[in-house]
Amino acid sequence: MPSKQPVAPAPPASTYSDVDFKHLLEKDEVFKSQWDPSSNAKYLKTADASRVATAKSALEKNGFGVHLVKDRVQAFNKIYELIPEGASVATAHSTTLEEVGFINYLSDGKHPWKNIKDAIFAEKDQAKQQELRRTLGGVPDAFLTSVIAVTEDGHLLTGDQVGNRVGILIHGSKQAIVVVGSNKIVKDDSEAMTRFKSHVLPAVDAYTRKVFGFPKITVGNVATVFISYPAQRIQVIIIDETLGF
């Protein structure tokens, strides 16, 4: 059985500041016109301690493991602690994971895990690469991502374009680690969808324009995760910072 790594290195700085929420909103005129600060500015604020405690208690009742940390450095340390040495690791795109330094750390190769993306991108035949995404990429030991929202009654709202994030989070990975700023805590499932449509989607579209040159993204899947099954399979790290979309 692989052992856990008890001591984390210092997290590297993020090199993705040009595609975080703040910079996309400043630079993308379409985003500026779509994002209404009067209704969405609240999603850029950290949740107070009572809301965090309510969400934590509800998540735990629903079988999720929950870890409260004060900042992105503690979040990086907790991620490092949770992933066993030698584990295969996959990630979905996550601005939050970029901001805590985890994406840069995983990319530099100097870590104790097996980065599944290394094996996938080493295959240059596109058909074979796609098959690796479906097989090797669909069943990692540890899958790391963020989510659209965490509700006070202990649910996670997630979504994606083709099904990889939703499928691996719900069932594909042996372990899933969800990393979120407390600004993603909302009252209930209804508000989670409101946050998704009014706040997250315009930001993701701006990211798509910046990175891929497409006008917007097509979201093919949105799912609510009500419980972690088996219990503790999904670990949620809640950071007392405003992070991600």
TrEMBL record:
Signal sequence annotation: none
One family name in Pfam for this protein: LUD_dom
Coiled-coil region(s): none
Classification via InterPro entries: LUD_dom (IPR003741), NagB/RpiA_transferase-like (IPR037171)
Domain LUD, residue spans: 55-201
Name of the protein described by the UniProt record: LUD domain-containing protein
